[in-house]
Amino acid sequence: MNKIDSFAAVLDDAAHLAHDVQQFPAGQFDLDQAYAIQRASIERRVARGEHRIGIKLGFTSRAKMVQMGVDNLIWGWLTNTMLDEDGGVVDLKRFIHPRVEPEVCFVTRRTIDAPLTALEAVDYLEAVAPAMEIIDSRYRNFKFTLEDVVADNCSSAGLVVGAWSRDFSGLPNAGVRMQFDGRDVQVGSTAAILGHPLRSIVQASRLLHQSGLSLPPGSLIMAGAATAAEALTPGLHVQCRIGSGAGALGQVAFSTR
Prior knowledge:
Layout: H1 3-17, H2 31-47, E1 52-58, H3 62-68, E2 74-79, E3 83-84, E4 89-90, E5 99-108, H4 118-121, E6 125-135, H5 146-151, E7 156-161, E8 175-180, E9 183-189, H6 198-210, E10 220-225, E11 230-231, E12 237-242, E13 250-256
Parallel strand pairs: 1-10, 3-7, 4-13
Antiparallel strand pairs: 1-2, 5-6, 5-10, 5-11, 6-7, 8-9, 8-12, 12-13
Helix pairs in contact: 1-2
């Protein structure tokens, strides 16, 4: 087993069996190799019967980019087993130390196989929905470097997507409110997602093109977090509402056990 496959096996086993691992020693792999580890880890999931349903973006907050000393977003894959039902129950036993963050999710209607401009982006989208992503670093104590987190599929672990809408007009600077048991835990705005969530589609198209990949119609794109993440515990009712009035995206919710 080569180095890439060895690291991929460690991270895939940690995710599959829900146990944490020690952060890798510094300098074991660079960013390009981290993405290779990520791909190898996802291929192990595919070999078990999972299939890719889209991608997620990370570091869509300018403050997070500055904190990590990077100029670009990072991205990872979404698979079918990561998707939970809106209004359903999420079993936390399949995670290590899960956290949740409010997001905007898009579904594509055309193949994205080249860099898009901001004007072109909406023409490649079928619909948009309020969503929440469950992140769950496989590293002990949620501590990692940029390369570590990319190799770990950018900490992506689960997602819940609300009702779809074809109305994109309410996306810029929409209010975001995430609640646990009816109590506000995070309040923010979709403007935290690169200033406008549609800019994530532009960035996604560029990242895919740089990697020599395309995204087929019907793929999900999680645009990035609108607020900080909150730790999940059993017995919670988690709800996120995005926007208000006629242009509101609506709400998405789940319970934990």
